């Protein structure tokens, strides 16, 4: 998939036929910018007359899922810090918060590498209270839930007419 800029608004779905091979061009996230129309574009070569609607829908859903995962991974900010929410980090944050609650804070302080600054330097934070760690953890969970809900809403609003299917 690559980012492409067009002068005029492109179609979301286009089929190009040449010497026995058909190329389906799918475009996602079409937005007008000051440079023109920007979108993500993928080209699929196939021999079938047309791609099946289910195959096209799967490609669209996979794109939405990848976008949602990327947003969860690198879109969360806490106290002005970009926090890397990998699955491993999510488990570590959850476990530290759970243990801190169970031990009434005796497991604290705990230090985590939250991410990196703009120059690529690691950013660490030491959590010293159950309240601070719980607040951090709950804000991360709320962010993840918001990203998932937005992804579900986007998938629910897929209109196959945009891709040439009734």
Brief summary of the model shown:
With 166 residues, the protein is α+β, with helices and mostly antiparallel strands. Helices cover 39% and strands 33% of the residues.
In words, what does this structure look like?
- With 166 residues, the chain is an alpha+beta fold.
- It has 2 domains: 1-51, no CATH class; 74-151, no CATH class.
- It has helices spanning 53-74, 87-102, 130-156, and strands at 2-6, 13-18, 21-33, 36-46, 76-78, 81-83, 110-116, 122-127.
- The strands form 3 sheets. The protein has a 4-stranded antiparallel beta sheet, with no helix packed on it.
- Helix 1 runs antiparallel to helix 3 (130-156) and helix 2 (87-102) packs across helix 3 (130-156).
- It is elongated.
- The two termini are 26 Å apart.
- The mean pLDDT is 89.
* Poorly predicted tracts of residues: none
Query: Quick one: overall form?
Result: elongated
Order of helices and strands: EEEEHEEHEEH
Helix content: 25-40%
Gyration radius, in Å: 22 Å
What is the helix tally?
A: 3
Per-chain topology:
Blueprint: E1 2-6, E2 13-18, E3 21-33, E4 36-46, H1 53-74, E5 76-78, E6 81-83, H2 87-102, E7 110-116, E8 122-127, H3 130-156
Antiparallel strand pairs: 1-4, 2-3, 3-4, 5-6, 7-8
Helix pairs in contact: 1-3, 2-3
